[in-house]
Backbone:
């Protein structure tokens, strides 16, 4: 069984897994990191959205072999101890969540957007593809704008 | 609905070492039955399944095990607020775990009735506990109870001494006669109820700490998926599992009624092995059936409308609504550990008592040997009324002799139901001298008919045989009449948020616009003069004012409006749409107003309305399911085109009318108003008369 080493939320981890095993199942089934959610398995719903070297990925379609020696960040790695990331804090302040299932992915997508686009327009926010079946989109938009302002 | 103040709530004290009080749930009966039971005077020895139980723990937590499920609607937050209000406890000290399946009582989450059914019992329970805690502190300090105050989960003496509830709980458990009132506060003194409050689980959600069924490590259950037939209700004719079994990580392969299950060390291995199964399928009972045929059968099933009043003119419209999946973000997931003499199941269930009975009989155990743990769900929209996945998981666990964590794939979820049934409505409005004199609606829907329905954990979608959900008594429309028919098909259907109202009332609101136009009236003005209820007129006025009804808009853009009344509540919705490209319309703005009596958590209510706005946008403009030769054509969110951020309104606002009184239901309330307003806005923007939904399908 191939062995893969990567950095997960700041700490090196090593797993034995086939090269083509999607990162999502490595995280969830082998490492019990359950923040990234399964919603479709084909990169469409984006409930699993996480970061690879700081850029957005969908772990359900990224083979673990692609992560070797790179940095994987999931929702669990976003806060600095008890201090929430500004995007998480904005999510709390706007009480974005309903069922909450898509929200780790939504937050990771928003963090990635703000990294490349610190002052996003409505059109920029519209490009986020993550599905929220509860329909929290308006509060997501509000929270992203709030986090963008907080970052000034 | 009776005035709350006239209800008689009996609260019992449980014989326990910590203060534990219980209130009967979901009935006003005790006052009548319990002539001997005076409030708070009865000590009972055990927890009764029909009760809501509150315990003050020694570590100063208030614990109420809730016989409802949290699926995002915010019921745990609303109940925590009721408890915190009457106890003067900090919200962070209130824990609302979900009760496991009981044997009796009301443990049903549905019909938007959780808040209204819990509002009385929960507040009386907490008020009783508070009285006992205050009395216990008075005894400890040798002070008159009436001089003591409560705040922040403690009792406070006039000299500033404090005692946490946790430190008083053992003494309070022995208090027989509270020395202060056990009655809930008047609404005028509410400091929590009615105040916008962030969800109690919000922080756990944004940090990824919330655990849904798939995140549990319960029973060390093994990842499991099922290979399902290409058609609805198809069956396994033969299976060759040799290649699948030879793959790494595969633990077991078993046949079940719905297909072939693979149990593996990881979902990755389970999916790989599933795809390596060589299965011959026999087609399901609908293999020759497609949408066109279903539509014509529905058309034939719509009953005749009867005679219109003499001397009136008629307007008649027909509507078609496609099947719609529930598609909660969290796919159906269940952990099952079935042994020879007992079984334990974990899953998100709106009706866990029925689930326990069905699972017990499916695996051949008495229901007393089956425990069902209710887990919070990642959305539901009615889907978790049924327990298909839990039944499957139990059968697989029994057959494989392993604890299993069954997960439906997204394709399983979209292709194998359940779905909101397809509907058709025929509505005829008769008018004379500028007034509506008769309103007739005939409707037909697909209803579920297959012998396996019960065995699949089905609560039948009973749209067709039940009385019409609405006779449009909402409006002063003269003589009202209605009738319904059905087409029975072997399809997995289910109640979908707002159930029949989601299409019936939507169609009616479209017709209201149409008749207003025929009579040369403005849609808002026409509704104002024809709506019967004051409350519904008030919410309409609110959206018309706040949403600047009638403002000038560029070509291709328009406003639309609709109202709805149900669950003891009412709502209005005003939508602005940009349909300059009719194939790619964008709802740009949504203004909603609701009157739900007392809104326990206005922020939560706003969230529910926001969700129903997206339901309206999705079901009217974008998302439905096609049936192609006995199979659902769609298979993911790529083709089941639920709204994403770019389809959601750029501006959303909700106005909660502060009317007070008994709380009504709210979770499903907004769907017909939002759907109706989106359709009406689209019609006005494009000058078309959309009658088949979703529009871009």
Residues:
């Amino acid at each position: 069984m191939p062995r893969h080493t990567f950095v997960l939320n700041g700490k090196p981890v090593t797993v034995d897994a086939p090269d083509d095993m999607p990162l999502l199942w490595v995280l969830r089934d082998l490492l019990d990191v359950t923040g990234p959610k399964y919603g479709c398995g084909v990169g469409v719903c984006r409930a699993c959205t996480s970061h690879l070297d700081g850029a957005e990925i969908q772990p359900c379609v990224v083979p673990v072999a692609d992560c070797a020696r790179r940095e994987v960040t999931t929702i669990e790695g976003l806060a600095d101890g008890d201090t929430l990331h500004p995007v998480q804090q904005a999510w709390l302040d706007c009480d974005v969540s309903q069922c909450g299932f898509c929200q780790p992915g939504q937050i990771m997508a928003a963090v990635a957007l703000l990294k490349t686009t610190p002052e996003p327009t409505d059109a920029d926010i519209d490009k986020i593809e993550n599905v929220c079946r509860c329909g929290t989109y308006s509060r997501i938009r509000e929270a992203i704008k709030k986090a963008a302002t907080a970052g000034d | 609905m009776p005035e709350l103040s006239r209800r008689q709530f009996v609260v019992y004290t449980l014989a326990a070492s910590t203060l534990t009080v219980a209130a009967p749930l979901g009935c006003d009966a005790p006052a009548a039955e319990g002539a001997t039971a005076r409030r708070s005077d009865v000590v009972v020895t055990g927890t009764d399944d029909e009760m809501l139980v509150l315990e003050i723990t020694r570590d100063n937590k208030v614990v109420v095990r809730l016989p409802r499920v949290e699926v995002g609607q915010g019921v745990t937050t609303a109940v925590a607020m009721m408890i915190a209000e009457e106890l003067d406890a900090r919200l962070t000290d209130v824990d609302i775990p979900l009760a496991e399946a009981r044997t009796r009582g009301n443990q049903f989450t549905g019909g938007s009735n959780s808040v209204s059914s819990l509002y009385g019992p929960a507040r009386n329970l907490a008020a009783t506990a508070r009285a006992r805690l205050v009395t216990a502190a008075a005894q400890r300090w040798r002070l008159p109870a009436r001089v003591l105050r409560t705040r922040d989960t403690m009792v406070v003496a006039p000299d500033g001494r404090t005692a946490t509830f946790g430190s008083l709980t053992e003494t309070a458990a022995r208090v027989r006669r509270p020395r202060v009132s056990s009655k809930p506060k008047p609404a005028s003194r509410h400091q929590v109820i009615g105040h916008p409050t962030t969800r109690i689980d919000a922080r756990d959600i944004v940090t990824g700490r919330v655990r849904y069924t798939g995140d549990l490590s319960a029973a060390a259950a093994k990842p499991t998926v099922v290979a399902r037939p290409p058609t609805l209700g198809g069956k396994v004719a033969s299976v060759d599992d040799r290649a699948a079994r030879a793959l790494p990580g595969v633990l077991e392969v078993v046949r079940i009624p719905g297909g072939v299950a693979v149990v593996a060390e990881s979902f990755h291995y389970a999916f790989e092995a599933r795809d390596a199964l060589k299965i011959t399928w026999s087609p399901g009972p609908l293999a020759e059936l497609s949408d066109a045929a279903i539509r014509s059968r529905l058309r034939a099933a719509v009953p005749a409308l009867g005679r219109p009043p003499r001397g009136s003119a008629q307007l008649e419209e027909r509507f078609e609504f496609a099947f719609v999946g529930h598609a909660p973000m969290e796919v159906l997931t269940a952990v099952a550990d079935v042994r020879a003499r007992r079984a334990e199941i974990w899953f998100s269930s709106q009706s866990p008592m029925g689930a326990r009975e069905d699972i017990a009989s499916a695996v051949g155990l008495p229901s007393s040997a089956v425990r069902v743990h209710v887990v919070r769900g990642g959305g539901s929209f009615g889907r978790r009324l049924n327990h298909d996945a839990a039944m499957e998981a139990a059968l697989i666990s029994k057959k494989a002799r392993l604890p299993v964590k069954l997960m439906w794939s997204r394709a399983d979820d979209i292709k194998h139901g359940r779905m909101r049934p397809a509907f058709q409505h025929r509505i005829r409005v008769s008018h004379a001298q500028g007034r509506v004199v008769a309103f007739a609606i005939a409707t037909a829907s697909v209803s579920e008919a297959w012998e396996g329905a019960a065995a699949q954990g089905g609560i039948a979608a009973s749209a067709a045989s039940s009385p019409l959900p609405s006779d449009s008594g909402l409006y002063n429309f003269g003589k009202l009449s209605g009738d319904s028919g059905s087409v029975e098909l072997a399809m997995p259907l289910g109640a979908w948020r707002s159930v029949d109202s989601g299409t019936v009332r939507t169609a009616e609101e479209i017709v209201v616009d149409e008749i207003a136009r025929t009579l040369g009236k403005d849609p808002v003005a026409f509704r104002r003069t024809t709506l019967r209820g004051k409350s519904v007129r008030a919410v309409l006025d609110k959206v018309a004012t706040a949403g600047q009804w009638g403002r000038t808009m560029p070509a291709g853009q328009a406003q639309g409006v609709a109202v709805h009344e149900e669950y003891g509540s009412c709502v209005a919705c005003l939508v602005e749409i940009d349909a300059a490209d009719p194939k790619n319309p964008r709802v740009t703005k949504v203004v909603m107003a609701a009157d739900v009596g007392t809104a326990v958590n206005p922020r939560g209510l706003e969230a529910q309305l926001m969700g129903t706005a997206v339901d309206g946008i999705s079901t009217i403009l974008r998302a439905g399911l096609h049936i192609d030769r006995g199979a659902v054509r769609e298979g993911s969110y790529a083709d089941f085109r639920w709204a994403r951020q770019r389809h959601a309104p750029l501006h959303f606002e909700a106005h909660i009318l502060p009317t007070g009184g008994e709380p009504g239901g709210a979770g499903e309330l907004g769907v017909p108003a939002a759907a109706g307003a989106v359709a009406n806005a689209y019609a006005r923007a494009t000058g078309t008369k959309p009658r088949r939904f979703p529009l871009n399908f």
About this structure: Residues 103-116 of chain A form the longest helix (14 residues).
